[in-house]
Amino acid sequence: ERHRQTNAVELLNVLQGNDPNEADAWYDEVKKYAFEGWAFAGILRNDLYQLCRRVLIMANEGQIEKKTWIHVLGTSDLETAVLLTALQRSINRHINPRLRISFDTSSPFRALAQKRAFTIPTFTSKEMSMPMRAVPDGAKFVGSDVRWPWPSPIGDRMTLSDFCVSRPPTAMSFHDKLSNHLLAHHNLAALCWGISLANRVFDSETVDHHHSIVPHVGAGVEAIDRVLASGSLATLATYKPTFAMLRHSDAYDTGDEHRE
């Protein structure tokens, strides 16, 4: 902060903490640094109750009205994506119309090591998920004009012969470097499409407040807006059972990025 000569590069103040007490202590120590936004890390980053609690505290202390960005580290599941979209919209409505929320994940690329591809989203009353399946790998796929099975901008243009190629007898698979690039491109695009589709589904079901797909997430979406509209930690406490139904409600859930 002392040596900055321009604010052209936006810096995010990173928050950590293994439990609410640690998170409070960390926040109290770093909030004096007036950077452009916040990044949420650690095991509380996907706990929507704790995220809303922190946003309310920030708003009450003037620590969010002029910020431009919140980033949530390492998350890829569709439920969290929908909830973070809801959180951004509520912040825009009630606190700061200019703030954006983003998140990142390495899942599309870590899947390369597992030889797995994202398929198509699953939407049921119990879950939203982005399943993976093992990719084609074998001599029978070499030269095949059968199309790649899963949709994506590059997958829609691929055949199995693009992905499985002749290799030396000592090779461990029928994939080469280009195969890995194609799989990474497919996985990233498929996940982005799945996240976009999940938000579209929730937008449509929020119109009449009838959530047939994972109703507990729909209840969480509506709770987020009511809590931020109130600006009150007391109101947040009344919705604790609603937030407890969400996937990452356990404060000690390490999140998707660390499950392996």
Terminal CA distance: 36 Å
Q: What's the count of strands?
A: 8
Strand/helix succession: EHEHEHEHEEEEHHHHH
Strands across the major sheet, in which order? 1-2-3-4
Beta-strand proportion: 5-15%
- Our Rg estimate from Cα atoms comes to 21 Å
* Residue-averaged pLDDT: 91
Low-confidence stretches: 250-260
Largest sheet: 4 strands, parallel
Helix content: 40-55%
The backbone outline, from C-alpha atoms, is globular
Number of discrete helical segments = 9
The structural class is alpha/beta
What's the short version?
With 260 residues, the chain is of the alpha/beta class.
Give a description of the structure.
The protein is of the alpha/beta class and 260 residues long. Helices cover 42% and strands 10% of the residues. It is built from nine helices and eight strands. The protein has helices at 20-30, 48-60, 78-94, 107-114, 160-163, 177-206, 215-230, 233-238, 240-244; strands at residues 12-15, 37-40, 69-72, 100-103, 116-118, 122-123, 128-129, 132-134. It has a four-stranded parallel beta sheet. Helix 3 (78-94) packs across helix 6, helix 3 (78-94) runs parallel beside helix 7 and helix 4 crosses helix 6 (177-206). It is globular and about 65 Å long.
